[in-house]
Amino acid sequence: MAEQDGRVAFETYLGAFAEKSLGKREEMLRSSVAEDVAFSNPGVDGRGLHNLLAHIVRFQANFPDSYFRINWHLHQHGQMLAEWSQINPDGSELVTAHSYARLNEEGRISQFAGFWKPF
Predict the structure, then answer these.
(1) What number is the average pLDDT over the span 27-38?
(2) Are 87 and 68 in contact (CB under 8 A)?
(3) Residue 12: domain span
(4) Which of 43, 49, 97, 109 is within CB 3.0–4.6 Å of 116 for a Cys-Cys bond?
């Protein structure tokens, strides 16, 4: 898998958190994560596409109009490491964090873990 493919999966996954249309959000996730994706961060530990969709609904309720920006991205042997920032609607950074992900044979994220200091 090419490094660019991993970045596209990661960008699409993060972009789903800002997408307002449920149909488009689900389409974005289906193209970027596995059906049985495992995901975790300091506030959540979940599995499955439908649970991830529910998590994003809660995220959007807590952080309306927030989005993510990738600061850097590394990829090797089906694994990714990235630094990203959550951006407030006014353009200010809320948090900068790091994530680790594994990709399946289809190039979709099968495991995702985000790490940041509580705020």
Answers:
(1) 98
(2) yes
(3) 3-115
(4) 97
- The edge-to-edge listing of strands for the beta sheet with 33-41 is 44-47, 33-41, 109-115, 93-103, 79-87, 67-76
Tokens (6 digits) for 62: 């807590």
CA 58, 63, 65, 70 torsion: positive or negative? Answer: negative
Residue 34, pLDDT score: 97
Token representation of residue 113:
């873990």
CATH of the domain at 16: 3.10.450.50
Beta bridge partners of 45: 40
- Name the token pair of 12: 């699409």
Number of domains in the chain: 1
The structure's pTM equals 0.91
Could you read off the pLDDT of 42-87 as tens digits, one per residue? Answer: 999 999 999 999 999 999 999 999 999 999 999 999 999 999 999 9
